[in-house]
């Protein structure tokens, strides 16, 4: 079976704190924080279609950036 290794160290988000220091966090940390915020805002309501919600939020920017990176060439394998 094909095994794919993922290096999450390259998918980072840069933030600047109040002392103008730049820090790097893995994308997964930002996703985790966004989900914590989402759950906190539910106020006990049921969660509906969470997987689809997260996928929709991640998939569109992914596709947009891939198309930008490949200059619109849909045949480039990434």
TrEMBL record:
Keywords: Activator, DNA-binding, Transcription, Transcription regulation
Listed GO biological process terms: positive regulation of DNA-templated transcription
SUPFAM superfamilies according to UniProt: Homeodomain-like (SSF46689)
Domain of life: Bacteria
InterPro entries: Fis_DNA-bd, Homeodomain-like_sf, Trans_regulatory_Fis
Gene Ontology MF, one: sequence-specific DNA binding
Protein name: Fis DNA-binding protein
Organism: Salmonella enterica subsp. enterica serovar Sanjuan
